[in-house]
Amino acid sequence: MGADKSNKVVVVGAGLMGTGIAHAFASSGFETVLVDTNAAALEKAYASVEKILGDGVRLGKVSEEKGRAALDRLTVNADLSEAAVGANLLVETVSEQLAIKKAVVMQAASLMVDNAIIASNTSALSVTEIAASVPAPERFIGMHFFNPVHKMKLVELVRGLATSDETVARVKDLCDAIGKTSITVNESPGLTTSRMSALLGNEAMYMLQEGTATAEDIDTALRMGFNHPMGPLELGDLTGWDTRLSVLRYLHETLGEKFRPCPLIIKMVAAGRLGRKTGHGVYQYHEGNRVPGSGLKGSAL
């Protein structure tokens, strides 16, 4: 079963994830519409896709002709009711608020083709609950992409209670068609990646708090010893410790004691040391770059 690249794909939400997902489909031969009510966000997203494609051409990863063709396949639209007409796939990447996601998929569902698939990029909310708001929940699935989408190969396919085997198979084909590796996950708190990453980052913070090793050495251990592209403390700074704390509290509540947030994370969030976005987390940052030697040293705190 191969994916039909004549299919129309609609991506709702022109943030970082939506922009990356739109690029993935447009550059893989799909007619793609990126939707957002914010005109400035659409303009920025289109320019970002143009830059990604331009960089690919300059680096010799894509021909100029293919880069131009990919951009020609991408359009932007502020009106979901217009964009969703005749679409075969919709991927929503809007704010992580259940009511907003439900409103988006309810609005689009009746305008798409009869066997259309609707997907959510959520990593936290219930796919089953969002799917309950559309007429055919068996054709609703989670498609959890990773940032930056044009570099990260993994997509977690999340089965809700009603998601059919046929839907999973069709979406796997779509992932293959855009050059992604997919895994299938039954809906559960934290899926696979968020759950494992939260546990690893939390344990790294306990080690830092106890003075087992410095932040730099803990991160180096994971990069050099396990071939991780980024250490868990670096990743926490990138994600934001407020976000990490929110995830840990949810996992602690749903999955138990092993996810109890490290007190150092709570202390850092209370102090406003959230990571890169505030210029100070486990490490300090100047003009977006990490300050060498600025990592926390645990028991010396």
Automatic annotation (TrEMBL):
Molecular function GO terms recorded: NAD+ binding; oxidoreductase activity, acting on the CH-OH group of donors, NAD or NADP as acceptor
Domain 3-hydroxyacyl-CoA dehydrogenase C-terminal: residue ranges: 192-285
Coiled coil start-end: none
Residue ranges constituting the 3-hydroxyacyl-CoA dehydrogenase NAD binding domain according to the UniProt record: 8-187
Superkingdom classification of source: Bacteria
Record bears the keyword Oxidoreductase: yes
Keywords: NAD, Oxidoreductase
Site (Important for catalytic activity) residue list: H144
Binding-site list for NAD(+): G13, A14, G15, L16, M17, G18, D36, E96, K101, S123, N147, K277
Family annotation (InterPro entries): 3-OHacyl-CoA_DH, 3-OHacyl-CoA_DH_NAD-bd, 3HC_DH_C, 6-PGluconate_DH-like_C_sf, 6PGD_dom2, NAD(P)-bd_dom_sf
Record flagged with keyword rRNA processing: no
Gene Ontology BP annotations: fatty acid metabolic process
NCBIfam families named in the record: PRK09260.1 (NF006722)
Protein name, entry field: 3-hydroxyacyl-CoA dehydrogenase
